[in-house]
Amino acid sequence: MTTAEPVTIFDSLVGEITQHYHRGRVLVAIDGADGQATHGFAESLAAAMRSRSWYVLRLGMTPGAASDIPVATLPHPDKYRADEDYSHLRAIVAKFRESKLAVDPSVPEVPADAMLIVDGRFLLRPELRGIWHFGVWLEGDMHLRDESLEAQVQYTRDSAPRAAADAIFDVTNAASPARVWADTC
């Protein structure tokens, strides 16, 4: 792949998202087992959205990930439990939707046309699917620790995030993500 191809991939994804959600406050989830891959993909998508003059906020669910939004407590990224508490994430989303998520003193309110891109694991679980306008599933070759691998297997088996995603990308080569078309027609 040439270096221009990833840019084309993100431009195409931006076009797809904005075709369906061209106005309003849009919520996008980037889900996958590899925290570095989800973070890098979300950052590239945010850059592509900003190049189209969108106001974009970022929230990384992986501990230590850079985020535009102060985060107090989020679920443990290596465990998948049905009783996981996502109330803090839901509160952030509610504030974003209501334009009350002030993260920049120069912008006291979230503009009417804005995007919140959240990356992390287990975001396309059934309990959270209804809050996203657009979901991306990232897959690829990665080595996970036993506990993390067990959680990922349980998540993909029980929650079918691949089937819930609006777009699927293979990030085996993170520098050149490839769109996976998994149409059933």
Structure summary:
The chain is α/β, with parallel strands linked by helices. The protein has a single domain (4-172), classed as P-loop containing nucleotide triphosphate hydrolases (Rossmann fold, 3-Layer(aba) Sandwich). The protein has helices at residues 4-20, 35-51, 87-97, 146-159, 161-164, and strands at 25-32, 55-60, 114-120, 134-139, 167-170, 178-180.
The fourth-level CATH homologous superfamily is P-loop containing nucleotide triphosphate hydrolases
| Cα shape | globular
Average per-residue pLDDT, rounded, comes to 85
SS-derived structural category: alpha/beta
Q: Hey, roughly how much beta strand do the residues contain?
A: 15-25%
| Alpha-carbon Rg, integer | 16 Å
H/E series: HEHEHEEHHEE
The CATH architecture can be named as 3-Layer(aba) Sandwich
Helix content: 25-40%
Q: What's the multimeric state?
A: single chain
Largest β-sheet summary: 6 strands, mixed
Strand tally is 6
Count of the domains: 1
Unreliable parts = none
CATH topology value:
Rossmann fold
Q: CATH first level: which class?
A: Alpha Beta
- Sequence of strands across the biggest β-sheet: 2-3-1-4-5-6
Q: In angstroms, what separates the terminal alpha carbons?
A: 28 Å
How many distinct helices? 5
Organism: Microbacterium istanbulense
Protein name: Uridine kinase
InterPro entries: P-loop_NTPase
